[in-house]
Amino acid sequence: AAAPVMLEGPGETEPPRINISISKRSMASKTPVGFIGLGNMGSPMAKNLIKNGYPVIATDVFPESCKELQELGAQVMDSPADVAEKADRIITMLPSSPNVIEVYTGPNGILKKVKKGTLLVDSSTIDPSVAKEMAVASEKMGAVFMDAPVSGGVGAASMAKLTFMVGGLEEEFQAAEELFTCMGANVVYCGQVGSGQAAKLCNNMLLAIGMIGTAETMNLGIRLGLDPKLLAKILNMSSGRCWSSDSYNPVPGVMEGVPSANNYQGGYGTTLMAKDLGLAQNTATNTKSSIPLGSLAHQIYRVMCSRGYANKDFSSVFQFLREEEAQ
Amino acid sequence: AAAPVMLEGPGETEPPRINISISKRSMASKTPVGFIGLGNMGSPMAKNLIKNGYPVIATDVFPESCKELQELGAQVMDSPADVAEKADRIITMLPSSPNVIEVYTGPNGILKKVKKGTLLVDSSTIDPSVAKEMAVASEKMGAVFMDAPVSGGVGAASMAKLTFMVGGLEEEFQAAEELFTCMGANVVYCGQVGSGQAAKLCNNMLLAIGMIGTAETMNLGIRLGLDPKLLAKILNMSSGRCWSSDSYNPVPGVMEGVPSANNYQGGYGTTLMAKDLGLAQNTATNTKSSIPLGSLAHQIYRVMCSRGYANKDFSSVFQFLREEEAQ
Amino acid sequence: AAAPVMLEGPGETEPPRINISISKRSMASKTPVGFIGLGNMGSPMAKNLIKNGYPVIATDVFPESCKELQELGAQVMDSPADVAEKADRIITMLPSSPNVIEVYTGPNGILKKVKKGTLLVDSSTIDPSVAKEMAVASEKMGAVFMDAPVSGGVGAASMAKLTFMVGGLEEEFQAAEELFTCMGANVVYCGQVGSGQAAKLCNNMLLAIGMIGTAETMNLGIRLGLDPKLLAKILNMSSGRCWSSDSYNPVPGVMEGVPSANNYQGGYGTTLMAKDLGLAQNTATNTKSSIPLGSLAHQIYRVMCSRGYANKDFSSVFQFLREEEAQ
Amino acid sequence: AAAPVMLEGPGETEPPRINISISKRSMASKTPVGFIGLGNMGSPMAKNLIKNGYPVIATDVFPESCKELQELGAQVMDSPADVAEKADRIITMLPSSPNVIEVYTGPNGILKKVKKGTLLVDSSTIDPSVAKEMAVASEKMGAVFMDAPVSGGVGAASMAKLTFMVGGLEEEFQAAEELFTCMGANVVYCGQVGSGQAAKLCNNMLLAIGMIGTAETMNLGIRLGLDPKLLAKILNMSSGRCWSSDSYNPVPGVMEGVPSANNYQGGYGTTLMAKDLGLAQNTATNTKSSIPLGSLAHQIYRVMCSRGYANKDFSSVFQFLREEEAQ
């Protein structure tokens, strides 16, 4: 049985070391891949494509973001449209829905010059309904769109240990999988277009609920006189068990190698979790789904963002709830 | 590694079959055990003591509850005080805090006639602060009190598969453990008096949060077009994983042998969960602990109790949240 | 001082009686007004314009909706674009954001044929950001856009007792006010474009919170043995006072002439409140505003919609929370 | 019509000036009143009794608290029992339930020496069920117990402007009312014993919900571009209106003379509100009442207590939710 995948797991503290030793031959034998969006996540992902012998044709709104990749051999273009003209497989990795809409359907967007049959893979985390819109727009131009959001953070991106949750036509899945395996360790096919995004939002919503619940429970138990390590052990052998209690415990001193052991540095930031919960809330509102705990989790991370926890790992909710009242 | 303990797991649907074949000799060699409270849980627990060769001296406010046990050889007394006069180890299994107070400190209570050095074990689920009060009152009379709430339900009680969470003096633990192992499969020492109750409340609060969270998440995913089995699989290999998603999934059709596969019959009733969450809320209020999700979980199970879900398994929250809006 | 305005107040139970006695002369002297969207709200609003002597040029996606108005003298067109060609003041009254986008910017939308200087007033309840987008698009065509959502329900629409909350350029406000006063009793200028929508969403969010809070409080008080009328009186002379406690009490028997006195018929439906709270939630998420109680109120009305309360007045939350638990 | 009573209103900033000019004659003609608990609230209340000519017989666990009252002519006793021996009307004003239990039923408590027919009035804010217990215990000794919690704060106590919410036998109400009118401006009879407490908890729970709701709404509106004063005006003429929006607005700059205009100094502290909400939660749990918003309000004030808001006015929840996220 495969080891459990850690979505949005703790960030690595050591700098990623990637040995780029590419045989010119292998590069020549592979068709180029377009890559749009060279931020914290996109840049190491693109590097891993290069490392695996794919010629990369890249662009970013900030030209300086392309420099490092250019030195590694990537061809840099001025716009998404220009990338689309040259590559028949393109990956996009962008911060949010409006950027995705612009990169695909804007005046210099991919769809202005996309070739028929091109495979478009969006790895951004966005609203599933936007993914569906992009798929419809792509199809009109004869291209194929897949959503493939990732989890695992910057460290996992560098070490090609990401998990891809993929939505799209099953018959196109294999063509994309070849690329995913260069950048990640796990690939999960989730169904039709948009279901990659849906799966990621669902997972992260339940993760947030489990984390806050674990933080509340551990805090309550400690105040009732229980030893935190013992309480964690009891929960983990019982029905209270969850990933946040057994693999990412938010209480300092209970586990090693997790953000709570490192003053909540690294890991998955509260701001990112608040963004994901906002997307989950939007999809729930649009589908008239009741998510009472998910909504409250969203509000709690929202408040935390404005009270100094924006850049701490999301397990810092324990610290947020923990402090003793002033007497 | 031991299999995970399922606290408050699904009830068994088949009637428990216990072969009572007790050697008279072994009975003679063991000192009698008092047992007060012969309800749905207490009765099979007491039977398991008899089965293991312990002479049982029992009582209950409803005399008819004692009949079956009497036929198996138990001696039936009129009051807790009378039991205390005859046994130096006594187990109590009662519905709630007021009953415990009455049975220990009432006019015909245990403490009226308890012998010095008697071991008193309360397996009821009550407020940890009441457990501490009982311990203080018992100590005044020279007796030793332990709290040892159980999980596992009626089926586990019948099959001696309960889990005991025990609070009390560590040096007295062994004397009690001998009895626990006749009635249960797992015994967890949690610390000072009251910590058995604390551990149980903590676990069940996190369990309730995880269950509602799982129900919300599965419902949202389904509305977003995900296949429920696939979504459960993705969550369970990811950071959204929890006991409610991987061992007790609330969505019909995802797992077999759980209440959701049986129209939410059996298992752990919504009323019981609401009671536990009320106790957790009380302890949180008293210790000024913030439990935002735990509080909301309490309110949700409270509403469910009044809307026809009182006697369904607590995983029926999926059904409660699921229904489509009338158009 | 003016009497308090009741936003989304109780619906009238009697059919509205409007005496349409229009002088042909006054009609001739006024410039025509376009009206798009002749549903439950739009139809009586347009009638009131006719009653006040304005020639009306109307359209609706359902041609049969136009019949009654046509008999009263309105000119019916095929599309919003056609209306725009003929009228230089146009009011739109549509169910939700996508309809507004279609009617303004669609292939047969207003903006296809709008004349320079036309005043466009949207009285739909939609996302403030969509209102702003429509304003930008209108401005590009040389037209002026205002948002002017209403409150008061179908009864108030019929009796020209609506309240308009208006966002847009202050210098254009007077030209619009002339029309509002034909259809409503109160007009509130709220600021720049979008602020009419913002004000409405803010009011209705606080209204929902106050209503659920009143329902919880009254229920708790009743269970503690207080007489509901006396409790309402105490709250209303104290700091717990709110519109839901003193003008629209949700407990049957406390007030007359409100939906709670009529089995929660009439008034403002739970579905509509859930829609408004969804919009409020969206704007809060987009502006990163924390609305813990507003979010929970949204979820509660969402659950109610799927449990048989969709068409009852939103004060039926008292009934939803009230029921005694099964014993 | 009487002016609305402000329960727990803003504290006065000026020191209270009480002219104590007591005619010896009037004092002689009135029977003495016992007063137990001379804290921030009790002390000015007892002074107002003296001012109105009542001989006061007082005690407090901290003897130094009695000094000032002694100088004004009060007779100071060693214990509640001693007070009970001398007075046939006794008022108690204590911090919380355990103190009340001790003062009434403890070894030196009132009930040890209470005379038959004595009127006992408890003005503490406690659990209604404890009030009922005290009533039962008092009745056993032939005394009459009433609960009469107050609202209005220290300033109102000094100026005899408190509101009393009274529970107890209606036929005893007049004997007590004579005393209440010396210390307060409003007296509300709420029903049987415990209903004074019930009414106070209900009011304060709805007050807390309204305050947080107002804070969320004002914050959301401001972020949407609305002017806070204008938004408050719109809400106050509409159905969002509540005491917190129209009489105690939490947004600095909207109103004068309220804590939000004075950096949230004075008024009703967050800690006190959290205590009241804890009591409300307990009574709700005990009566199996669903209070979703009340529960969440409790949790929010609980978190605020531990994050530096303990001693600020409870309207500071606006500030707590307001802060912009770090970018």
Automatic annotation (TrEMBL), chains A, B, C, D:
It is an enzyme of class 1 (oxidoreductase). Residues 194-320 form the 3-hydroxyisobutyrate dehydrogenase-like NAD-binding domain. The keyword Magnesium does not apply. SUPFAM superfamilies: 6-phosphogluconate dehydrogenase C-terminal domain-like, NAD(P)-binding Rossmann-fold domains. It is found in: Mitochondrion. The keyword Mitochondrion applies. Its EC number is 1.1.1.31. One of its GO terms (biological process) is L-valine catabolic process. It comes from Cyprinodon variegatus. Pfam families: NAD_binding_11, NAD_binding_2. GO terms for cellular component: mitochondrion. It catalyses: 3-hydroxy-2-methylpropanoate + NAD(+) = 2-methyl-3-oxopropanoate + NADH + H(+). Pathway: Amino-acid degradation; L-valine degradation. Keywords: Branched-chain amino acid catabolism, Mitochondrion, NAD, Oxidoreductase, Transit peptide. It comes from the Eukaryota. The active site is at residue 200. This is 3-hydroxyisobutyrate dehydrogenase.
